[in-house]
Predict the 3D structure of the following.
Amino acid sequence: MECYCGLRAFSSSSIRPVCHGIIRCASSGSSDRWTRRQQKDPYSREATLRNLKSRAAFKLLEIDHNHHIFHQGQTVVDLGFAPGSWTQVAVDRTGRNGRIVGIDILPCAPPQGVTAIQGNFLHIETQRAIKAFLSEDFLESPVDHVGHRAATDKVGDDDLELSACRHEIMNDAKRSANTNPIGQISGVPVVDVVLSDMMANTSGNSFRDHTLSMDLCNSALAFALDTLKAGGHFICKFYSGAEDVDLERRLRKAFDVVRREKPRASRRESREQYFVSKSRKKSVTKHDLYEKLYDY
């Protein structure tokens, strides 16, 4: 078995349940099946043994093993961080001087040393709060890896359903851009890595699930281009389909290296994949890719 920086990789696979938006109550039968599957899954068992928040940590560990994303002292933003396994990896890889900010629509206690913001990433208030945290004061403040760097904040209205129809999501983003313009973080990008593990609840309609996934990925990319330093990295999860080619084109315009990844910890039958984009090009901005759609 291969070893990813001290954590073993396993051959069998399964994906963790992600709930960003509507919380569905599973039937007792499906709940029992999920429990049995988790008990048999070596990634889940290993995550429990290593005190990881979820088995999803092994997906990011494999990506980092293959692409060398993390380094000591980096500033990392984790979009859709709950339950916190990716942020645990980021804290471990960036060391004592690392700066980690996690954002999620769900209330979630962050791992030690992580600043958490509860809010809907698609809302202008949430993005303003993220950028406020990524200020010079935040970057110059001492890191406390014993407790949280700052109290967990709840920002704005967090009850927008991410599984609402695509038309409503995009119109809301456009209205926010037109009425609440906001610039970059003091005009100076300060982030080294942006992670996006965001995913709307799947509905069984592959076209709908894919297009919602693309909207979340494009929102995350626009944010990344606003906040990443030149040379910074961006990783996003997506539900594969026809439009991921358009997203890949945008990524290739903005980053020197773009790769598709299907970590071993993802189920073979799942359409979940990851874009790993390295070395953000300084000359390309979100306006070059989206014009005024995400002008906030």
Remarks:
- The first strand starts at residue 3 and ends at 4.
- The chain has a mean pLDDT of 76.
